[in-house]
Amino acid sequence: EGCCRTQLGMFLSAVSGSRSSKTFKPKKNIPEGSHQYELLKHAEATLGSGNLRQAVMLPEGEDLNEWIAVNTVDFFNQINMLYGTITEFCTEASCPLMSAGPRYEYHWADGTNIKKPIKCSAPKYIDYLMTWVQDQLDDETLFPSKIGVPFPKNFMSVAKTILKRLFRVYAHIYHQHFDSVMRLQEEAHLNTSFKHFIFFVQEFNLIDRRELAPLQELIEKLGSKDR
Description:
By secondary structure, the chain is mostly helical. The protein is 56% helix and 0% strand. The chain has a domain at 76-224: MOB kinase activator (Butyryl-CoA Dehydrogenase, subunit A, domain 3, Up-down Bundle), CATH 1.20.140.30. It has helices at residues 2-16, 35-47, 52-55, 64-84, 122-138, 155-183, 187-203, 216-226. The radius of gyration is 17 Å and the shape is globular.
């Protein structure tokens, strides 16, 4: 686990440093001075200790919805940055389908604009997906940023759908673009980010095991290293 601290330090500095200009979509900022901002700072501090299992746990006395909201925004920003670094390799020609290896293919539907799932290229799918997530995160009725504004009753199901879909971007990057990630020397960032994501969704049971199947071997490997 000792290596985790330096990897995570590199990752966090990359998120806030020069590479942030390469985000795929505009970064979603949590307003400074808000309670959610304090929670984000707490998350970053505990991540720095290198113990990811501990870092994902709900801090004492905190609201579960708020903790999930802050981390969902953070994962959106992380994936946004990671995918942003490889967009030039993920094209209509290289990735005509949104897949995670030969056995898993994803078709896009958001239930409002596109009701019937459509086949599309990976860059198109990820554009739809990240735009959709952004719209959810920007919706104050779903993700309230003001203190005292309650989370809606359907918050948990929305958060689960967001995280399930964000997982697909990790799965696509690992299966189709890991060689590019290695060439860019981003694999430590990707692995640390994904491990943090997986420990988080496992801690609160947010993604169905079947959905995680495309990266099951990797998930088991990350989990066994941590025991």
